[in-house]
Every structure is written in structure tokens, then in C-alpha cells.
Amino acid sequence: MKNTICFLAAVFIILFFAGCATTSDSGDAGQNETPVLSWNDASSKSSATPESPAPYSAEAPETPKNLVKKGLDDLFDGTRHWPQNTASIPVTMNPAADTQYWDTFKVMVTGGSDIDEIEDYLLSWYGIYGWTPEFYAACHNFYFQKATVLLETATSEDDIQVVYENLDRCFASCFHGSMQYPERLDLWCGYIHAANMLGDYDNAESCIQAIFDRLEYNGNNWYWTYNEPFYGDDQEAHEREFVQIMHDYVIEFMNAGFFDYSAYVSERLLTFFPENVIALNDAALTYLYAGELETARPYLERANAADPEDLIVLTNLAYVCEDLGDYDAALEYANMMIMSGEEDYVDRGIKLCAELNQLMYPDK
Question: What's the rounded Cα separation, in Å, for the pair 166 and 159?
């Protein structure tokens, strides 16, 4: 759990727009804290996999801007609904030939380039390379940021409608990107991150379901920015970091009060990694917050068996046993906390032992 913040910083697709939407550190005018919107996809639902428009020829970089813009418009007009089984989506992984465009795009955004200037750059990028993973990621970031900027100056219903149109394009970018490049985990994560930021937890949970469906197909072998393998050939790192990503979503769902969603993510994660300590602890926490202590306890016991030195699990287990009235077990776990030698847990263990002795021997 202690790695949560560190790993969030590595979610590359949201590296700068997420920050610009919530802070004023970039120095750009109009980049202050943005109110949360509740975005809902009003498009009709369909289980069909959407088709992306054919890319323009790389031999014709001078394609008229209006034609390229028409190609972009076509992308965002499609119906979007996560397929029931993403394992059926074919793999179409292209080389990351446009890395220099992505790198320049980052510099333009972090350097405070004008929105129109950035959009022109996106259009020229698309005219040369078409629908690449990096282009989808850039569109996602750009339209989310553009929506937040427009929101700050919106004064009418028409202005708000334009904000929603840009948010719609933000989500469409990651949706179509994920459908065309289903092994690019950063595109899926970009969609979920934006949905959670806007309080659209229904859409976020639907996307996570699609990720798990894909996981059954690809064996947790994902790609990230520049089409680089997600932690190479290190399968332990694959599991650790994928679980950490899902852990972050579990915490976000719990903090928002969506315990059914956090329970779904935890339980589904355990079908792939049944002895993962973080996943087991997350499942237990979900049930604890829901008041289901008896259901939570076995998950903590499994986590403790998998890693007896995990003090977070040990502490949770001690408190659950206390609340369930199993004072002997709680006392045993409290003593283990004291024996750990970790100052914070030693102090907690001592306090818990005092509480338990009072409960067990009230007349003394």
C-alpha cells in the first residue's frame, strides 16, 4: 500500500493534464481548481466493436487541415459501449513511430502553448501518422484540459454544451484507442482516471470490467507509452504493478462510497491473483466498511498467512478480532505488533493490549 503514491506518478497518460486540472502551478492563466462535473455518456449502447476511420497516407503530410479535421470529427461521432468480452478484440500493435510528436506535445502543454496552437499540432500529427496509440493518448489529455479551461469562462448553456462536447472527445479518445490497441494499458487507465475525476464511477467501473476481460486473454502482458512492454519480462513486477493500479481504484471507489464497485474490483482481482496480499486486504476493507466483519476476517487471515510480516494486515486483523469479540486472537495479533519493533505499530499494539485486558478482565 505504501507504493500507491509512487505508482500513481507513473501513470504516464495523465501526467500533466491531471495536474493542470487541479492546481495552478503551471503558470498558465485560467488553470485554477476546476469544479467537478458529472459526465454521462448519452450515446446509445451497442456491443459492436467501433471502427476507427482509416488513417491518412503518410506520403501526404500536406493534407488540407479541413479534411484532417473531418477525420477527427468522424472519430468522436461513434457509438461507445464497452464490449461484453474484450478478449474478442484483435491485437493491432503498431510501432511507436510518432514518439517525437508525443514528446513535442508534452513540451507544448507543459510550456503553456496556446490551445489553438496545440490543436493545430494535433491535426498535423494525425495527418501524417493517423490513429496511433500516442495520438489517442494526446487527444485524451488535450480535450480534458480544453474542457477544464472552457469551463472557467462558461457563462451560458451553450458554453457548457461545448465543455461537455470536449469531455466527450476526451473519453472517446481513450475508448477508441483501447478498442484499437487493447494491450495498451495506459489508454484504459486514462479513461478510468478521467471518469473518476469527474465522478463518473459507473463508466469507470464498466471500463475496469473490460480490462479484467482482456486480462483473461493476454495473461497480464500489457504495453505502456511508446508501446514499451509493461515492466518487460518481469512477471512478478507485472502482478505487483497491475494490482497496485487496481488498488488505487478500490480506494477511490471506497472513498466515494461505491462499495459494490470496490468489492467487484477486489474479488475479480483475486480470481487472477488469489494470494496477493494487497488484493486480499482490499477485499477485507471493502467488507469492513460495509459492516460485514465476519466476511472480512477470512480475507485478512489469508493475507496474514501469505505474508505474516505485513503489519497493515496484522493490525487490521487484530482490530477485526477485537470487534468480533475474539479477544484471545486479537491479543495474539496485538502482541505480534509489539514484537515487530516498528514504533508506530508497537504503540498501537500496547494500546490494543490494554483495551483487550480491560474487556477480558473488567473487574481488575
Answer: 11
